[in-house]
Amino acid sequence: MKTMLLRSRLFDIEQESIAPIPEEARHGRSRELFTIWFGMNMTPLTVVTGATATTLLGLPMAGALLAILLGHALGGIGMALHAAQGPQLGVPQMLQARGQFGSRGASLIVLVAILMFVGYFSSNLIVSSDSITALLPEANGTGMIIGCAVLSFVIAAFGYNLVRKVTELGAYMVGALVLVSFVALFAGGDFWAQMNHGEFTWTGFLAMLAIGIVWQLTYAPYVSDYSRYMPAKTGTTGAFWGTYLGCVLSSALLMILGSGVGIAVAGADTMTGLNGILGPVLGAVVLVGFAFVAAAGNSVNAYCSALCALTFVETFFSGWRPGARARLVTSLVLHVLGVGLALAAATSFASSYFSFLSVLLYVLIPWSAVNLVDYYVIRHGSYAVDEFYAPDGGRYGRWNAGSLIVFAIGVLAQVPFMATPFYTGAVAEAMGGIDIAWLVGLSVSALAYIAIARTAPALVRLNPGSITTHAKVAP
């Protein structure tokens, strides 16, 4: 009977969308968050990104290992603190941003999040397709991209429960394949012979460190989309550690594999190189497994992009409560858009993707700083959730001037420290191309928001009426 109920729940089309999840609909345990996020990173894209450390950035293996571990460990803290908000508030992360930026002000951040989700969706389509064409050169790349998108749409259409179960199964499937890949990598002589190849530079190290940090922070706009279904009793501690350990361990593990493959194959295509290391039979199993899990797991990006798009539209049609049909139509439109972007970007994927990550970092850091400081330091997790949906923004207003000012300050403060393929700031150039813009943006945004909240609370719509309840929020 329990198995039948589980199957029914998995294949029932989710009716909830961006409205608060009622307590009677809450289910799951924090350890399930671990498998969601462990499985989410089990994709070829993670391996390819890790190879950047030893190929594009030229680091030796030891330097790459340290940068990857440190970057993910640091970035994961901010990411998981966002996830810890879900069980208490029960709403999607980007909708919760209305508590800091106002209903209309948050729509600016939502647009950035949609761009991010569609970008990652398209990137996963490309790398999944490349995994298959590396194995079967005669396979049609366009057909592979469309096929992967169809699989993602079917899973995302059913909604939260099926998406969660698919990523959980992917964690076990590809986790085993990754262990096999490490054994094959270490058994080959090329890895050990080339292990010290490359040169440690602070520019390369800090660039890879920043990639690890932004990799984690790009999940920040939607980790609460999954923890929001957890019962309120899950608390912030369970949601924090379940998400943190799952996301950090899987992404760091696969990026380390990618950096090792990058050294062993001396600049060849990463997935093709991995196939060569594994041999024809084992390579086929691993690449097909990676491609399938990446295509299925891409439903996470698709599901969350649909929630963001619905949040954006609802901003201008207050009182509208989108249901399952609206979510399905929105998801279909975004899948079509993602396929179009994947087909257009496939020919220049590597350089386009690296630039994409860089831009995301500069935009997401100020938003993340404002959100976390407001939630944990200023309001202590206490929000009037119903007023997120008020036509006039309720107590949070349509535009929160203080938060938007801090966001602009945080973005602008990073400009002199930026080091990207298309622009290098004066300070970064003087430092030999070392990029510490993420650190500047985080620090400036956090301090500026605290200063405004303490000295001019009206600017961030902070008053005694803003606090209705208090809860323990420290992880």
Report on the architecture of this protein.
This protein is mainly alpha-helical and 475 residues long. The chain has a single domain (27-466), classed as Hydantoin permease (Orthogonal Bundle). It is 70% helix and 0% strand. It contains 22 helices and no strands. The chain has helices at residues 2-10, 30-40, 44-51, 61-83, 86-89, 93-96, 98-101, 103-135, 141-158, 160-187, 189-194, 202-217, 224-227, 235-264, 270-278, 280-297, 299-316, 324-345, 349-378, 401-414, 426-430, 437-455. The chain is globular and about 65 Å long.
Using brief descriptors, characterize the structure shown.
475 residues, mainly alpha, Hydantoin permease, 22 helices, 70% helix, disordered N terminus, disordered C terminus
H/E series: HHHHHHHHHHHHHHHHHHHHHH
Tell me the radius of gyration: 22 Å
How widely separated are the two ends?
A: 36 Å
Top CATH class: Mainly Alpha
- The CATH superfamily is known as Hydantoin permease
Could you list the spans in which at least 5 consecutive residues all have pLDDT below 50? 1-6, 464-475
List the total number of helices.
Answer: 22
The helical percent reads over 70%
CATH architectural designation = Orthogonal Bundle
Q: What is the residue-mean pLDDT, rounded to a whole number?
A: 84
